[in-house]
Amino acid sequence: SQQGEEDPQALSIQEGENATMNCSYKTSINNLQWYRQNSGRGLVHLILIRSNEREKHSGRLRVTLDTSKKSSSLLITASRAADTASYFCATEGDFGNEKLTFGTGTRLTIIP
Amino acid sequence: DAMVIQNPRYQVTQFGKPVTLSCSQTLNHNVMYWYQQKSSQAPKLLFHYYDKDFNNEADTPDNFQSRRPNTSFCFLDIRSPGLGDAAMYLCATSGHGGETQYFGPGTRLLVL
């Protein structure tokens, strides 16, 4: 299976702290994306990082990509209660077949 | 606002009774996807369309069919739902394959 693994599976932190989630994948990629999913809802795209990029920022989000280790991390700084959600990484393989392969997800809970 | 719409949001059907889920988009995207997501799991791609070209995942059961009559609409038909088909069904669109996907809110299917 090409499915990625995310670590940890669940994370609980106090509001205001930083949250870090990790994603590992198995095949060469064109890009890696992070999505958020609130309970019972659809996924929302957060950020996309291409295979030739090493770091990207968007607001309180920081994503890193290490293609040599086939891994990525998502850092959410100064967490808020509204950040409580599941976070999924997804990769587009470099064979260009229009599909994303999603990781297993990290369930993040922010404690007010 | 441009968006991806799924109807209904909740669908209850009986074991073996055919059901159709619908998705529409106002983004004018070429690519449309159907995913199945079971509780606490990653979204699993069932099929996708690049324009009218239909692409079936190898492990998608024959019980699942799809139609895309035009750019804006896509349907998921489950011919004989079983208890194992109870899940959230997510529709997504993308302007170009492998790039950011925009998800609808999902349809939660319950099979009695």
Layout of helices and strands:
The complex is a heterodimer of chains A (112) and B (112).
Chain A: E1 5-7, E2 10-14, E3 19-24, E4 29-37, E5 43-50, E6 55-58, E7 61-66, E8 71-76, E9 85-93, E10 101-102, E11 106-111
Parallel strand pairs in A: 2-11
Antiparallel strand pairs in A: 1-3, 3-8, 4-5, 4-9, 6-7, 7-8, 9-10, 9-11
Chain B: E1 4-7, E2 10-13, E3 19-25, E4 31-37, E5 44-50, E6 53-56, E7 64-67, E8 73-78, E9 87-94, E10 102-103, E11 107-111
Parallel strand pairs in B: 2-11
Antiparallel strand pairs in B: 1-3, 3-8, 4-5, 4-9, 5-6, 7-8, 9-10, 9-11
Structure description:
The complex is a heterodimer of chains A (112) and B (112). Chain A has no helices and 11 strands. The mean pLDDT of chain A is 92. Chain B has no helices and 11 strands. In chain B, 35% of the residues are buried. With 112 residues, chain B is mainly β. Classes of the chains: A mainly beta (112), B mainly beta (112).
What characteristics describe this protein?
heterodimer; A: 112 residues; mainly beta; six-stranded mixed β-sheet; five-stranded antiparallel β-sheet; 11 strands; 0% helix; globular; B: 112 residues; seven-stranded mixed β-sheet; four-stranded antiparallel β-sheet
Straight-line distance between termini of chain A: 38 Å
Count of helical stretches of chain A:
0
DSSP summary: helix tally of chain B? 0
Portion in beta strands of chain B: over 45%
| Distance linking N and C termini of chain B | 36 Å
The pLDDT mean of chain B sits at 93
Query: What is the SS-derived class of chain B?
Result: mainly beta
Coarse morphology of chain B: globular
Radius of gyration of chain A, in Å, reads 13 Å
- Characterize the biggest β-sheet of chain B: 7 strands, mixed
Q: Helix-strand pattern of chain B, N to C?
A: EEEEEEEEEEE
What string, H for helix and E for strand, traces the elements of chain A in order?
EEEEEEEEEEE
Main sheet overview of chain A:
6 strands, mixed
Unreliable stretches of chain A, pLDDT < 50, 5 or more residues? Answer: none
Instruction: Bin the helical content of chain B.
Output: under 10%
The number of distinct β-strands of chain A equals 11
Rg of chain B, Å, rounded: 13 Å
What is the overall silhouette of chain A?
A: globular
- Poorly predicted sequence stretches spanning 5 or more consecutive residues of chain B: none
- Note the quaternary state here: heterodimer
